[in-house]
Queue: 3 jobs
Job 1
Amino acid sequence: MDSLDRSILQCLSENSRQSATQISHKVHLSIAAVIERIRKLERNGIIRQYTIVADQQKIGNEVTALMEVSLEHPRYYEEFTRIMSENASIVSCDYLTGDYDFMLKIQTRSSESLEQLHRVIKSIRGVSGTKTYFVLKEIKSGLTAFSEA
């Protein structure tokens, strides 16, 4: 992957519906070269999917929260991660080092639905502790860095 591939990825991360023509103007390559590079990035698994970023407020999700979760023992990892993957309100689940094992990003309709989800998470076998933070304002989200360093 070179700097042109990174530039193409940056363009697609800003708007994955951009045409190859639009991208070619930004990265100073021919349309055919842009298309071929995108296909290569897809074939190599660098581009795994194209998606959207929805305005959570406009679709009814008024609450964003971060939740740290600890497990009693690593043997509970598989079951916990499976349950997290199946819950639509949990938009990300990261495995961590430190005092807690996981960081969840949750987007849900209300504080009541967050409370309900919190009870569900606390009742999962092996969960030993949680710590929840309400997000007041999202400052930056969604774009991936494609720097050389």
Job 2
Amino acid sequence: MALDDEIALLRRLDFFDVFEQDQLRLMLFAADRRVLRPHEILFMRGDAAQEGYLVQSGLVALLSDDSQVVEQVRPGMLIGEYALLTPGERLTTAVAREATSLIVLPRKLIVRLLTEYPDVAAALRQKLVSRAESFKNAIEKIGEPRL
């Protein structure tokens, strides 16, 4: 996939829309690529989450402990958004359902870019705070009595 196509994939994701074109280009130059065969495991539940994965082609299933499909991740979708910013562990197991191409985005790469571009870090922080506030409000409404 051409670099401009990869940038277009990132641009479609809310997380990356605060980055400028040149910053996305730098990110993609430094990112790794990985190809999975059908049924190959990307990671297991409990593994350290140190990177995010942008699916370029193929299909990845995220599985629960009892191997039930929690989510199907298709091209243009991101696996592990929180892993781009903070340490943690994988909550699901990820398995390729077909031949799959991924862009591997290590946390250290994202953190380095955010450190070098504090205005982008501030914009991303505001975006995530707003998203968390919306989530909080939605949860609060669940417990409210209906009239």
Job 3
Amino acid sequence: MASPKNKKSKMRKRQRVGQLEKAKVAEVQACPVCGGPKQPHRVCPNCGTYKGRKVLSVTAK
């Protein structure tokens, strides 16, 4: 089994562990066209628009 050559500082250890504990919450914005929820920089799943242009044809469920 390999052993660590040098001691890891408290700061380095805490930075690594802190990244693991961060909750990745997806941002949700309102679509400017239909007002439905959508993630930024993605096509709106409700109306199929991106940056005000129709990109996808969306069928009703």
